[in-house]
What we know:
The protein is an all-alpha fold.
Amino acid sequence: MDEVKLNVKALAAMKNWTIEELAKQAGIGYSHLKFVACGRTAMTAKDLKALSNATGVPIDNIAVE
């Protein structure tokens, strides 16, 4: 069975945050995270760690695409 992978929009929704609030909580620039969310730029390992720390979701459960 495949693991559930949460994208940026799902991570924000899970916490009842906007993408802007998620970016702030994770210490990631809003423009960068917005571009990640719409697929215009790739997520980095640093982004994954920051999103995991901010949301409590394990890195393995965060979609990188």
